[in-house]
């Protein structure tokens, strides 16, 4: 009788990493570190174990000194998970980056006021200079003048503000409120330029651990680097993440190459999530980018990977993708592939999902502004948030004739019935009637056809039902202006990139706002790399389509080797800059690494045969794993 040897379990091969992290977390001898943790490596588990070590061994010491451990992560859901797994201990301050930044600066109203005074004055000077060089009466001039008026008004009110407020999830439309980008910019500036702020940070948080550090705002990361360098003997900065999973444009590029030589760089090797075949694939995808590679668990299933290459001319993409799911059900002997809701369908680009889900008129114009992409895709962009979080709920409750809910929104959000307005009014009932009429006029827009976002905005601006976000005020001024400019003047003095994007967005049917809101909230049937990072699904379908890239930041044909590098790509490589291929590779890595059992990659291309040849040449897929037609 032959007894087969039972392979040794490798489940504990990363245990030494957690032990190593524990040695860095000594308040009397803190060490800075970057923990490389690839997809499915259990970085949250390591983070929670590190917190447990601190609480057991140094909790009393920190509590006696009135200190806590700062933990920054990317989403509120991740914050809640870490809090739960660390038993909601008061020793840990777990928050998103915006909340943490506000926690540091909120007591410094006079310094914030002076920062805003300088920033607003610089913006006004820039706009005045542009106006002096532009042409009077143009659309660009109207938007500039609106911005100058708005910023000048805010500047003149600064001395009236005794303290500033900020809500990470609110609209921040009050005169004394800061917006999201200002909170980050102010915190980074204070940490960099004010030594006292560094002392406050390390005095309150002798350890700061940052999850998903590759996507944390680069200016704030640099400020934390500066703090760690200046206080190496009393402050420990721990970054946790994977450079291959950087997906937001405001994250720090090549963060691992910015680490000082004194930093520790432990690495987790084991992938707990993916089957063996998927681990092999994602290692090959990233092998050109860096030398980090993972190993699957010894008890992992083999799993299934398939590449389906289809002609870009396929008219009914839904039918094509349904047929592929049927084929996957046969290959994997998993009937759940036939149930759409039991599969996670991922697109690499947001406008691909927007087109399939029906809100591309909202998303497409705004994606053109690079600095807006992060806010647009996480739902925090003021221009879209105004519609999705204030106007949309009011309209939905109004159409249901829920008068109580409508009244609550108006009472909380409308300047017409604010506490100050009612206090100063000679006849408060007049303001209540005015607010009621404003709501009725807004809802009348739906009596005929679906109104555009622009028509909804016009109605609200004319009635003053809600405070218009600063970013939309120039476009409102342009839409309500009676001035008729000459086309030649507008060509010579064009509106800004942001105004152009907003004009396009406002042409979108308002009904698309609800679809957009579902998407950024993670409730839609399609998702993307941003929406699923950190999540996992048994059955994953990744859809790749260069014909839908529309000139944006990615290039799938280049990644697969079907198309050569452009002169710009070559120039960027020589200068050490990121290319579209780099971005595309990262997105493909993130999406493919979500799969727990089986993965199908659907590639639409003009040259299926070339795509197959290149897929084989790169070694990503085997001959029997490729289906093309």
Molecular structure report:
The chain has a six-stranded parallel sheet with strand order 3-2-4-5-1-6, with helices on both faces. Strands 11-10-12-13-9-14 form a six-stranded parallel sheet, sandwiched between helices. The protein has a two-stranded parallel ribbon with strand order 7-8. The chain has 28 helices and 14 strands. 40% of the residues are buried. Helix 10 (276-286) packs antiparallel against helix 27 (580-592). It folds into four domains: 18-106 and 181-268, P-loop containing nucleotide triphosphate hydrolases (Rossmann fold, 3-Layer(aba) Sandwich); 109-176; 276-359 and 520-628, P-loop containing nucleotide triphosphate hydrolases (Rossmann fold, 3-Layer(aba) Sandwich); 366-511, no CATH class. Strand 4 (207-210), helix 9 (218-230) and strand 5 (236-241) form a beta-alpha-beta unit.
Give me the secondary-structure topology.
Elements: H1 15-24, E1 33-37, H2 43-64, E2 69-73, H3 76-85, E3 92-96, H4 97-105, H5 109-133, H6 139-157, H7 180-193, H8 195-204, E4 207-210, H9 218-230, E5 236-241, E6 267-268, E7 270-271, H10 276-286, E8 295-296, E9 304-311, H11 317-332, E10 344-347, H12 350-357, H13 360-367, H14 373-378, H15 382-399, H16 403-413, H17 419-424, H18 428-444, H19 453-463, H20 473-480, H21 487-492, H22 497-505, H23 511-520, E11 526-528, H24 529-532, E12 537-545, H25 556-559, H26 567-574, H27 580-592, E13 595-605, H28 608-617, E14 626-628
Parallel strand pairs: 1-5, 1-6, 2-3, 2-4, 4-5, 7-8, 9-13, 9-14, 10-11, 10-12, 12-13
Helix pairs in contact: 1-2, 4-7, 5-6, 6-20, 7-8, 7-9, 10-27, 12-13, 13-22, 15-16, 15-23, 18-19
């Amino acid at each position: 009788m032959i007894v087969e040897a039972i392979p040794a379990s490798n489940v504990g091969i990363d245990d030494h990493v957690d032990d190593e992290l524990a040695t860095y977390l000594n308040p009397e001898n803190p060490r800075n570190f970057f923990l490389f943790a690839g997809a499915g490596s259990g970085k949250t588990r390591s983070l929670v174990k590190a917190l447990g070590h601190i609480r057991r061994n140094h909790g009393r010491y920190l509590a006696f000194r009135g200190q806590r451990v700062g933990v920054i992560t990317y989403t509120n859901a991740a914050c809640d998970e870490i809090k739960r797994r660390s038993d909601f201990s008061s020793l840990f301050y777990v928050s998103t980056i915006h909340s943490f930044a506000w926690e540091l600066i909120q007591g410094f109203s006079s310094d914030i006021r002076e920062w805003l005074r300088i920033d607003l004055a610089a913006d006004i000077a820039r706009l005045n200079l542009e106006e002096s060089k532009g042409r009077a009466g143009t659309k660009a001039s109207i938007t500039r003048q609106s911005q100058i008026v708005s910023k000048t008004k805010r500047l003149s009110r600064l001395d009236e503000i005794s303290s500033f407020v900020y809500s990470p999830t609110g609209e921040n439309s009050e005169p004394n409120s800061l917006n999201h980008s200002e909170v980050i910019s102010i915190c980074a500036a204070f940490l960099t330029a004010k030594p006292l702020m560094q002392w406050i940070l390390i005095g309150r948080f002798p350890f700061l651990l940052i999850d998903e550090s590759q996507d944390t705002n680069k200016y704030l990361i640099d400020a934390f680097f500066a703090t760690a360098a200046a206080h190496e003997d009393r402050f420990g900065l721990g970054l946790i993440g994977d450079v291959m999973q950087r997906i937001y444009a405001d994250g720090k590029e090549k963060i691992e190459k910015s680490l000082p030589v004194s930093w520790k760089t432990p690495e987790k090797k084991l992938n707990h999530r993916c089957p063996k075949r998927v681990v092999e694939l994602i290692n090959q995808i990233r092998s050109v980018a860096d030398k980090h590679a993972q190993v699957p668990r010894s008890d992992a299933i083999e799993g299934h990977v398939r590449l389906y290459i289809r002609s870009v001319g396929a008219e009914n993409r839904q039918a094509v993708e349904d047929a592929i799911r049927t084929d996957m059900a046969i290959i994997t002997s998993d009937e759940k592939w036939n149930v759409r809701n039991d599969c996670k369908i991922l697109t690499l680009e947001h406008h691909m999902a927007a087109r399939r889900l029906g809100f591309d008129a909202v998303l497409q114009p705004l994606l053109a502004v690079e600095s807006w992409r992060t806010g647009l895709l996480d739902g925090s962009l003021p221009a879209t948030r105004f519609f999705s979080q204030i106007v949309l709920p009011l309209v939905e409750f109004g159409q249901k004739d829920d008068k109580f809910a409508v009244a609550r929104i108006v009472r909380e959000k409308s300047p017409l019935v604010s506490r100050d307005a009612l206090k100063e009014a000679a006849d408060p009932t007049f303001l209540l009637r005015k607010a009621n009429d404003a709501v009725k006029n807004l809802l009348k827009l739906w009596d005929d056809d679906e109104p555009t976002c622009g028509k909804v905005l016009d109605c609200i601006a004319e009635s003053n039902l809600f405070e218009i976000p600063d970013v939309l005020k120039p476009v409102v001024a342009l839409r309500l202006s009676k001035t008729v400019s000459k086309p030649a003047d507008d060509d010579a003095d064009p509106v800004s990139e942001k105004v152009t994007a907003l004009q396009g967005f406002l042409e979108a049917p308002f009904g698309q706002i609800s679809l957009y809101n579902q998407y950024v909230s993670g409730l839609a049937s399609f998702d993307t790399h941003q929406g699923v990072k950190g999540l996992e699904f048994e059955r994953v379908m990744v859809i790749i389509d260069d014909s839908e890239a529309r000139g944006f930041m990615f290039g799938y044909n280049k990644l697969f080797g079907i198309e050569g590098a452009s002169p710009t790509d070559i120039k960027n490589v020589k200068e050490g800059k990121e290319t579209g291929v780099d971005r595309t590779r990262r997105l493909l890595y993130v999406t493919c690494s979500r799969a727990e059992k089986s993965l199908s990659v659907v590639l639409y291309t003009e040259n299926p045969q070339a795509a197959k040849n290149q897929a084989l040449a790169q070694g990503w897929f085997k001959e029997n794993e490729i289906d093309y037609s």
